[in-house]
Amino acid sequence: MFRLSNNLIGILNFFTFLLSIPILWAGIWLHQKGTTECEKFFDLPVIIIGAFLMAVSLAGLIGACCRVTWLLWLYLLVMFLLIVALFCFTVFAFVVTNKGAGEVLSGKGYKEYRLGDYSNWLQKRVNSTKNWNKIKSCLQDSKVCQSLMENRTTTTVEEFYKEDLSSIQSGCCKPSNDCNFTYVSPTVWNAPATTSYTNADCSQWSNNQTVLCYNCQACKAGLLDNIKHNWKKVAIINIIFLVCLIIVYSIGCCAFRNIGHDWK
Fold first, then answer.
1. pTM, entire model
2. In the chain, where does DSSP find H-type helix?
3. Which of residues 168 and 3 earns the better pLDDT score?
4. Do residues 161 and 109 make contact, with C-beta atoms less than 8 angstroms apart?
5. Measured between alpha carbons, how far is 47 from 32 in angstroms, rounded to an integer?
6. Long-range residue pairs from 22-27, CB within 8 A, at least 24 positions apart, any chain
7. Which residue among 121, 123, 193, 261 is least packed, with the fewest CB closer than 10 Å?
8. Which of 26-40, 140-154, 199-213 has the lowest mean pLDDT?
């Protein structure tokens, strides 16, 4: 005779199975239709997540509703490993994002960022040419710098200096304050006559709107600062998800025990 825990596991996994279908479809669509590096960067992870959710939900659904003991046991094992992995990932993310902060500039509404201020692990990720080319493609696709030019073509330098730029805009869309470039517009700056710079990012700057400072160390630092601050929001979601997983795992254990009792 089925019990409440078996029914709950069946219902939860049925909805998880339904959720996995559009996720898997989106991954396949990105793989077939994706044209930019950014889109291609996400296709495989999305496919893996969709397939994983589908396989686990089917194991839990069939195991609980059809009383297939080995499938339910496999489902519980995967859930346990997922709980441990999520907990470890949450702790790890807090450790690697606890360093780094923007530098406050006198008379400026925005901050500037230095790559060396952030954890070595994160620095290695963005210093990888392969990784950064994909990230850079995503930043360009998001038009994060183009948004600075919208309705601001007549912005004066004094007005621009008061702007509250995001860390990515500060690092990727303008030259460093050390460069002493002449302001023309938010994303157009003229270099001085001298070409001797103390900051290597100055030589990376280009007024070409597809280049700007996307190859600068400050751009990578701005991205890492953005990740650091967004992690606080992600951490809350992770904790809630972890609690939900533990509840589902506990219900699954009850269902597994019920199957054992039913076979006696």
1. 0.77
2. 4-33, 37-65, 69-96, 120-127, 129-141, 146-149, 157-161, 167-172, 217-263
3. 168
4. yes
5. 12
6. 23/49, 23/50, 23/53, 24/50, 24/51, 24/54, 25/50, 26/50
7. 193
8. 26-40
Q: Name residue, tokens 């909805």.
A: 15
Give me the pLDDT at residue 85, please.
87
What Å distances lie between residue 162 and 30, 157, 158, CA to CA? 40, 9, 7
CA distance 192 to 181: 6
Strand partners, 182: 190
Residue 2 has pLDDT above 60, yes or no: no
Both tokens assigned to 199 = 């900051």
Cα separation, 215 vs 172, in Å, equals: 8
Q: In the structure encoding, which two tokens stand for residue 43, read together?
A: 């296709």
Bridge partner residues of 112 (DSSP): 103
Which tokens is 182 given?
């002449």
Q: What pLDDT is stored for residue 216 in this prediction?
A: 95
Query: What amino acid is encoded at 57 in this protein?
Result: S
Cβ count within 10 A of residue 264: 4
Q: Please name the amino acid found at residue 109.
A: G
Indicate the average pLDDT of the chain: 84
With contact defined as beta carbons under 8 Å apart, do 242 and 86 qualify? yes
Residue 261 pLDDT class (50, 70, 90 cuts): low
DSSP state, residue 202: G
State what percent of residues in the chain have pLDDT above 90: 20
